[in-house]
């Protein structure tokens, strides 16, 4: 048994208790006890002690929208709107990556997540030619909790000449779905349940041509239901999407999703920046979940989801960092602040999205968004022991009057001291224990430069370098 002592525990339980002078007992990968340290110490006299030094203990953060394969592209696609971002940079670079590039990119992404307090992530598009087995093995080795969404493609994308979207060497929809089913069979629930395999269908959009294939999305939904797994898909994320759905199908985006089985409690929609007020009740009635990436939305100038209205209507909204290419980091603490400030200024009301709201989105609502609220997202007896310790005794976070306000508005990922997943300590004293940090950074730098060179893309500062 492990006893984490001398912490302030932000439980995010149903009462939203904050326990000072607290201790947390961990046994068998789960939280066995939580309360005042003075009470827990005599109950667990033989436990191994982990001294918290007065730090803030809170549930591990959940990044519900990530693109691990873009970690090597950090800084390569700045100051671009979504169309040139994809067409001129992302697609050319991703088409030239190797399996080894994808693996080090994932390890770099997880390293950054661990060092900034993320314990669980959703990788929304994982093509099969990356060597899915090797990627899943990497998640298992580094101790994180991951949802890997297998990229699946409709027949409409095949047989139409050269496609900007990587088809992964498949001949058609059947082969794409069959490969995803194999991945689910091998890896879903692996690593003691830390690893899940979902489906990540191609975004329904005018570009690439005919990607909104109704029958395909129904097949994806049936496959997910058969295996008891989830679906995550980029949806209504650009200003061009609603006119496309109206023109081609005579429906609003949410109406299309409802008609063709892309809504429900096992569906996590990405962005949803252009859902109208009229569509919010559809999301709420179907218990569909959405993930919001405010930093990427603001950086690309692509709009923002109606998060306050959605949450008020009962829609579960999680937070995600998106990608190193358009965020440009995976720091969920900074993302919480971005979410709060964005919606407060939009609504011209500083109480629109509070620090507490943002923390809920990054923890308990993130857990609900991936169907794991009974296991993750709060510090409660019986739940998985996924937690982080944050050192707020820093010049930029002192004095502490309200620990949650200081966490969300003043802290950053570099203040995370300790990370624990399923009872395993992944980082302590900011030393990562599950990977060779220096080796990952060195290989990432080498492969990142080589990838840009192969693609013929040059990136340099706008200001002169001597």
Characterise the protein shown here.
Helix 12 (332-347) crosses helix 15 (403-410). The protein contains 16 helices and 16 strands. The termini are far apart. 53% of the residues are buried. Helix 4 links the parallel strand 6 (118-126) and strand 7 (145-152). The protein folds into 2 domains: 2-59 and 387-421, Urease, subunit C, domain 1, CATH 2.30.40.10; 61-369, Metal-dependent hydrolases (TIM Barrel), CATH 3.20.20. Helix content is 36%, strand content 22%. The model has no long low-confidence stretch (mean pLDDT 94). The strands form 3 sheets. An 8-stranded mixed sheet has the order 3-2-1-4-13-14-15-16. A 4-stranded parallel sheet has the order 5-6-7-8. It has a 4-stranded parallel sheet with strand order 9-10-11-12.
Summarize the structure.
By secondary structure, the protein is an alpha/beta fold.
Rg, nearest Å: 22 Å
Major sheet characteristics: 8 strands, mixed
The shape, in one word, is globular
**CATH homologous superfamily title of the largest domain:** Metal-dependent hydrolases
What is the CATH-assigned architecture of the largest domain? Alpha-Beta Barrel
């Amino acid at each position: 048994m492990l006893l984490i002592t001398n912490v302030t525990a932000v439980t995010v339980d149903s009462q939203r208790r904050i326990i000072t002078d607290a201790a947390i007992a961990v046994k068998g990968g789960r939280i066995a006890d939580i309360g005042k340290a003075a009470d827990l110490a005599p109950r667990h006299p033989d436990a191994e002690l982990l001294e918290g030094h007065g730090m803030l203990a809170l549930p591990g953060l959940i990044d519900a929208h990530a693109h691990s394969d873009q970690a090597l592209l950090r800084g390569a696609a700045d100051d671009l709107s979504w169309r040139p971002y994809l067409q001129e940079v992302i697609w050319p670079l991703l088409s030239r990556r190797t399996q080894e590039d994808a693996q080090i990119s994932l390890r770099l992404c997880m390293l950054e997540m661990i060092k900034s307090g993320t314990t669980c992530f959703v990788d929304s598009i994982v093509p099969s030619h990356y060597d899915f087995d090797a990627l899943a093995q990497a998640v298992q080795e580094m101790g994180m909790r991951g949802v890997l969404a297998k990229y699946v493609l409709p027949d409409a994308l095949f047989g139409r000449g050269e496609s900007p979207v990587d088809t992964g060497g498949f001949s058609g929809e059947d082969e794409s779905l069959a490969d995803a089913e194999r991945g689910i069979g091998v890896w879903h629930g692996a690593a003691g349940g830390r690893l899940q395999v979902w489906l990540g269908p191609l975004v329904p959009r005018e570009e690439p041509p005919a990607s909104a294939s109704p029958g395909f999305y129904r097949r994806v939904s049936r496959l997910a239901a058969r295996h008891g797994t989830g679906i995550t898909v980029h949806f209504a994320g650009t200003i061009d999407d609603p006119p496309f759905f109206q023109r081609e199908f005579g429906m609003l985006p949410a109406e299309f999703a409802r008609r063709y089985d892309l809504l429900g409690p096992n569906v996590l929609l990405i962005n949803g920046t252009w859902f109208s007020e009229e569509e919010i009740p559809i999301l709420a009635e179907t218990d569909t979940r959405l993930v919001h990436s405010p930093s990427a939305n603001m950086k690309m100038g692509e709009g923002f989801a109606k998060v306050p209205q959605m949450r008020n209507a009962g829609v579960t909204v999680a937070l995600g960092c998106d990608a190193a290419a358009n965020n440009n980091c995976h720091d969920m603490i900074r993302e919480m602040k971005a979410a709060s400030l964005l919606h407060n200024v939009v609504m011209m009301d500083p109480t629109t999205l509070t620090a507490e709201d943002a923390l809920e989105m990054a923890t308990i609502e993130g857990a609900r968004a991936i169907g794991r609220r009974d296991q993750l997202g709060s510090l409660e007896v019986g739940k998985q022991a996924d937690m982080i310790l944050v050192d707020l005794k820093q010049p930029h976070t002192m004095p502490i009057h309200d620990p949650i306000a200081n966490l969300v508005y003043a802290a950053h990922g570099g203040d995370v001291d300790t990370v624990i997943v399923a009872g395993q300590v992944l980082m302590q004293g900011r030393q990562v224990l599950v990977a060779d940090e220096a080796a990952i950074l060195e290989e990432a730098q080498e492969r990142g430069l080589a990838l840009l060179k192969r693609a013929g893309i040059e990136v340099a500062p706008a200001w002169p370098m001597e």
